[in-house]
């Protein structure tokens, strides 16, 4: 299938297509309900959205093979050369930023929602700040270090099929298609998915296709690292099974992957989460280690990171290197170099501490804030692992922790050098209270915002940072202005990328 798909590429390398796709990306705003920060993740695409997206293609894609329909949904740019993909993303980012410029020039209300509500073309034709060329991903195929495979009815009607959805639950036309041909998936992820499917077909238990309809086996998440280690996390709906009954099935899962046919996956860790909710944290329902190592490790910019099953890590290690290098270069004031001098760095939504830790040698002090407890523990561990002593990590919601922290920092930074903030929230953007706390703290002169969906909720945050002071909304601090933007391609073959936007005042 891969060969067939690869063979089709040159036929569609048209600049017109690039323009159509730029429009489509912007209009669609990559609509989905997923609040995590991984736009390269397969998403459900309805027929209607599909038609709107690809107006130059036949109205229906139903004549296409299932694999091609899936590839078009998960990796819609797979037909383009990598050069054309980058061009498209650059234009897409430029257009988003032009619309931001429009909104800032017109002083539009900070309460507007997202760019998806601004379908008209931007009025500005020139940006008031530089947009640097997109940084390419060093690896283009098989770059993902985390994939989640669903379980549902396959093309042949078999309900124990592991793959990705084509269609939507709402339209009642979901088909689960195996992802072996997807360009962004590494071989190891595909292998684990195939083995999990084999295991399900051997199991006496039914899969959980719809939450209210019974069934047990749910999706599997596979995480890998550059060193070749593999972690699998199997999600399971307990329904009315007793703990003893569940134990039997957990044992059969372990046996399959450690002594049975699944041994070819060479799993370093096997986790199991029983849950009657679609997504829940370790605190809500523990990730149970059934076999092997509790963590997976990754290396970025020469720093080592421990990553828990529940913790976020950038999905493309090579591109994460480029992103963090750029953040490090642009983040701290001139004069900051190894050994400090960069003042205090706030790492808001810090995950396992990657940004703060990679910047720590140039900062005097790093304070990270993160919601997920396991990630905070990882961040603390990672600072120690890299012999770093100037980082601290605070658990909790940034909107709860940051306002109090800013009050404390008010007095200490008077003599403690500049204060810089790096924020890297999930797609839902930052809570208004976070923006207000940052904006109203006059010591922050530079703020770096990293977003994988700048046209979404992040746009609301950009406006809140840059609008004129608004006493009604208690946004009294001096306004920021964007000074430079750098796109980083974290997700080849998809229309998405990360955008680093630097604000100063
Ligand atoms: C896109 S990830 C970035 C993580 C980290 N900066 C990195 O580069 O690896 C967003 C992180 O924000 C965390 N998060 C989401 N909502 C949050 C909130 N309200 N307060 C603090 N952290 C939050 C998520 O758990 C996740 O770790």
TrEMBL record:
Binding-site positions, S-adenosyl-L-methionine: 314, 370, 424
| Keyword annotations from UniProtKB, A to Z | Methyltransferase, S-adenosyl-L-methionine, Transferase
- A Pfam family annotated for this chain is tRNA_U5-meth_tr
* UniProt cross-references to SUPFAM superfamilies, sorted A to Z: S-adenosyl-L-methionine-dependent methyltransferases
Q: Which residues form the active site?
A: 452
> Biased composition, Basic residues: where in the chain?
44-56
Query: Reaction catalysed?
Result: uridine(54) in tRNA + S-adenosyl-L-methionine = 5-methyluridine(54) in tRNA + S-adenosyl-L-homocysteine + H(+)
GO MF term set: RNA binding; tRNA (uracil(54)-C5)-methyltransferase activity, S-adenosyl methionine-dependent
Q: Where is this region: Disordered?
A: 32-58
- Enzyme Commission no: 2.1.1.35
Give the GO terms filed under biological process for this record.
methylation; RNA processing
Q: Does the keyword Protease apply?
A: no
Give the similarity note: Belongs to the class I-like SAM-binding methyltransferase superfamily. RNA M5U methyltransferase family.
In Swiss-Prot or TrEMBL terms, this protein is called tRNA (uracil(54)-C(5))-methyltransferase
Source organism per UniProt: Salmo trutta (Brown trout)
């Amino acid at each position: 299938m891969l060969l067939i798909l690869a063979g089709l590429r040159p036929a569609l390398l048209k600049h017109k297509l690039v323009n159509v796709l730029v429009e489509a990306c912007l209009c669609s705003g990559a609509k989905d309900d997923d609040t995590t920060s991984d736009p390269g993740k397969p998403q459900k695409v309805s027929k209607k959205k599909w038609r709107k997206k690809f107006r130059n293609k036949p109205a229906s894609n139903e004549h296409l093979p299932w694999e091609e329909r899936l590839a078009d949904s998960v990796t819609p740019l797979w037909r383009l050369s990598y050069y054309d993909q980058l061009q498209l993303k650059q234009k897409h980012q430029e257009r988003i930023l032009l619309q931001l410029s429009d909104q800032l020039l017109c002083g539009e209300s900070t309460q507007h929602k997202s760019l998806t509500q601004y379908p008209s073309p931007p009025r500005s034709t020139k940006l008031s700040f530089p947009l640097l060329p997109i940084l390419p991903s060093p690896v283009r195929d098989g770059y993902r270090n985390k994939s989640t495979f669903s379980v549902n009815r396959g093309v042949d009607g078999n309900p124990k099929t592991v793959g990705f959805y084509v269609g939507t639950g709402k339209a009642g036309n979901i088909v689960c298609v195996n992802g072996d041909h997807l360009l962004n998936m590494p071989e190891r992820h595909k292998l684990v998915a195939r083995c999990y499917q084999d295991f399900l077909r051997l199991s006496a238990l039914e899969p959980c296709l719809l939450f209210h309809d019974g069934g047990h086996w749910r999706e599997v998440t596979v995480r890998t690292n550059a060193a070749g280690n593999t972690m699998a996390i199997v999600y399971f709906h307990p329904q009315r099974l007793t703990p003893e009954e569940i134990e039997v099935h957990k044992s059969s899962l372990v046996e399959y992957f450690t002594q049975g046919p699944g041994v070819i996956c060479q799993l370093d860790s096997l986790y199991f989460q029983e849950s009657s909710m679609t997504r829940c944290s370790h605190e809500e329902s523990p990730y149970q280690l059934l076999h092997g190592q509790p963590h997976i490790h990754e290396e970025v910019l020469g720093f080592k990171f421990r990553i828990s099953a529940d913790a976020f890590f950038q999905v493309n290690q090579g591109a994460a290197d480029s992103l963090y290098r750029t953040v490090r270069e642009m983040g701290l004031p001139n004069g900051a170099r190894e050994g400090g001098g960069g003042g205090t760095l706030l790492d808001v939504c810090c995950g396992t501490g990657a940004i703060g830790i990679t910047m720590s040698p140039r900062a005097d002090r790093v304070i990270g804030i993160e919601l997920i407890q396991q990630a905070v523990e990882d961040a603390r561990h990672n600072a120690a692992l890299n012999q770093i002593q100037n980082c601290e990590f605070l658990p909790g919601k940034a909107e709860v922790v940051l306002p109090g922290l800013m009050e404390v920092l008010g007095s200490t930074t008077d003599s403690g050098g500049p204060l810089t903030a790096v924020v890297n929230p999930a797609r839902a953007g930052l809570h208004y209270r976070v923006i207000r706390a940052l904006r109203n703290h006059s010591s922050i002169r530079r703020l770096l915002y990293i977003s994988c969906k700048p046209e979404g909720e992040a746009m609301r945050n950009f406006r809140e940072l840059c609008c004129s002071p608004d006493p009604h909304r208690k946004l009294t601090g001096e306004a920021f202005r964007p000074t430079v933007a750098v796109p980083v391609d974290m997700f080849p073959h998809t229309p998405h990328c990360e955008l680093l936007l630097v604000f100063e005042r």
